[in-house]
Amino acid sequence: MSTNINRENSKSLSGELGIYKHPKIFKLENGKKLRNLEIAYQTFGKLNEKKDNVIWACHALTANADVLDWWKGLFGNNDLFNPEEHFIICANIIGSNYGTTNPLSENPVTGQPYYLSFPEFTIRDLATAHQLLATHLAISNIKVLIGGSLGGQQALEWSLAKTQTIENLILVATNAVHSPWGIAFNESQRLAISADRTFYANNPQGGLKGLKVARSIALLSYRTYQAYADTQIESVNDKTTGYRASSYQNYQGEKLCKRFNAYSYWYLSKAMDSHNVGRGRKSIVAALAEVKANTLVIGIENDILFPISEQKFLAENITNAQFSSINCAYGHDGFLIETDKLTNIIGNFLKDSANKKIIKLNRTA
Length: 365
Known about the structure:
This protein has 365 residues and is α/β, with parallel strands linked by helices. The chain folds into two domains: 259 residues, Rossmann fold (3-Layer(aba) Sandwich), CATH 3.40.50; 91 residues, Rna Polymerase Sigma Factor, Chain: A. The protein has twelve helices and eleven strands. α4 runs antiparallel to α8. The N terminus is likely disordered. Keywords: Acyltransferase, Amino-acid biosynthesis, Cytoplasm, Methionine biosynthesis, Transferase. One of its GO terms (molecular function) is homoserine O-acetyltransferase activity. It is found in: Cytoplasm. Pathway: Amino-acid biosynthesis; L-methionine biosynthesis via de novo pathway; O-acetyl-L-homoserine from L-homoserine: step 1/1.
């Protein structure tokens, strides 16, 4: 397995590391099966006696289980979600190369890495894996389930499974069904990867040139015209080549290639495409009506990948959901950047939720 976690239980500077080894065959939504499923996860803080302080974060496309690292400002020792008060859990998702079973893991049938023989999976499968881990950790009640982008898709699917009680659901820059626009972006990235002939060479480094291009394409959907105008504008007028924006695209592509692999990216982008809460249910609207958690939906006003209309749709169809929006020149990436704004919005929502809970308890006493 390609992993940065190699012990059953260990400590990192930022939390407890663990790997859950699922004892049974994991059946995917498409009917295919995964043997020897392993789920890497991290926990921060301690579960209190009432077991009512669990904060579960679902990570996005190329992130990992160290939520205190990639969502700084919202998760951290002095932040809204801190280990002093909360028991924070984040699990690495199926297909990712940060410790959970993925295309570079050993196929128990062949003894070799899966590569492109890895079975395709869906967002619903990612949510099912979270449920298995929660059961393993004896977590039956989650105070806050939160995710942004692909993480929000997982959180929404999990809330519909009803395997654990989810008190508060926070969905950031995400949707109920992945759009044709989003699928087109993902397919363009996969075309770039597949154009790299090394992608088919069954080598851990395969497809990296294509992955670099894919990341460059993705950045254009994560950011905005204004973000590039603010950060990549030239300071001189006499250039005819070597532009800052060009260097930036190259740098970001190379940066991802140093920490990720093309096979995981390929499969995870397909999982994002699969997201549709209406599949196998009466309809998308009917599925959203089944969400029972107190729900906060946050959109980013100039997000071109997950337009704010998608978050408004969620809020309009989830019973009693609250909706809020933020403006950020960085577009979709604002869900990782605007942590002060998110802290204010989420903090107020949780205070209101706690007050409503107290009022409800008093009425039933």
